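Q: Hi! First time doing this. I have a protein sequence and I read that you can turn it into a structure. Is that right? Here it is:
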Amino acid sequence: MTQRNLAAVLAAPLLIGLWVVVLTQPLPYVTYKPGVTVDVLGDPDGEEIIQVSGQKTFRDDGELRMTTVFVSRPKPATVNLFQLMQAWVSKDDAVYPYDAVYSEGTTQKSSEAEGRAEMASSQDLAVAAALEELGYQVEIAVVAKVVDGEPAAGILKPGDEIAAVNGKKIDGASAVGEAVAATPAGQDVELDIVRKGEKQTVSIPPAVKDGKPYLGIELTARFEFPFDVSLHIDPDIGGPSAGLMFSLGIYDVLTPGSLTDGKVIAGTGTINADEQVGPIGGIQQKIAGAREAGARLFLVPPDNCDDALDAQNGDMTLVRADTIHDAVAAIESWVDDPDATLPSCEKKKEAS
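A: Yes, that's right. Below is the predicted 3D structure, encoded as C-alpha cells:
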C-alpha cells in the first residue's frame, strides 16, 4: 500500500467522524412542521370534543378541523444541521432563529404549562364568542383597578360590575370605554353597577384625556353562560390558536343543520369575546396540514394573510376571517356556491 493510499485510509474515518459531528451538533434554530389536525365536531375515543349540557344540540355530518404546528423543543433539545437541511428543502416546513421563538430560560415544562393555560383561556373565549354570535349576553364588565387620583377613585372599587353607562345597557368590557367616551361634554358619567350582589347607580364627573371623557379605571371581563359548554381536547395540544374553530364548532352544534354541509373545512386563529379573530404562528404549516387532511376551505386570520398567500395550499380555498360572524357567513356562502366571491387575503402594499 502506498503512503498516499495509507493516508487516505487513515483519514477516511476521521472525515466521517467530522461529518457526523457537524451534522449532529446542536444549532440555535427552531423548526416548524405541519402538525395534526383535529375535527372539533368529532368524538375521538367515543367522547365528543364539544359537550353541551342543558341545551338542545344538533349533530350533523361534516368536519371543522383545528390545525396545529409541531415546533422543535426548547433547549437542551435543539436541532442539528441534518434536521435544518430537511426543513430548508421542504416546501411546508420553516426554520426560525431560536431567540425568535423561545425566550431565555424557557424549558419544555414551562412551554407546555404556558400552552395549556393558553388553551384553557381560548376555550372560555370560544364559548363566549359563539354564544354572543347566537344572541346570548354572556360577558360582564368588571372593574379590575381604579387609578389613584383619577375621577373614579373613591367611587368605584375593584370587583364592581358595570351593567349600564348613562342608562345604556353594556354588553361587554370594551363597550364601557366607548360609552364613557360618548358622554356629552360637561355631563357626569352615570354608571349602573352591581357591588357584592347589590345594584346601585353612581355619578362620576369625568376628566378629559385626548379630548374624550375619562374615568381612570381598568376593566376585565367575566363570563356567565346560560348553560354548560365544555371542550375535551388532547391535553398535549396547547396554545390559543384553536379559538376560532372551537367557536365555529360550538355554533354548529347549537344550530339546526350542518354548517359545513358535510364538507371538510379547516382554519386557525385566536378569538376574543368581541368575536374578533387574532393572529397565530405557523400559518403556512397549518395550511399544509389542512391540505393533507383533505380540507377544501381554510379560514385565515387577517393578520396572517401575507404569509398565508405564500403557503402551499393546493386547490384549497383560502378565506380571510375577521370575526366569527364573517367566518360563518363565508362558510354558508361557499357551501351554497363553491365559486362564490368570498373575503380574500391580499398582499400588503409596501410603503413608497
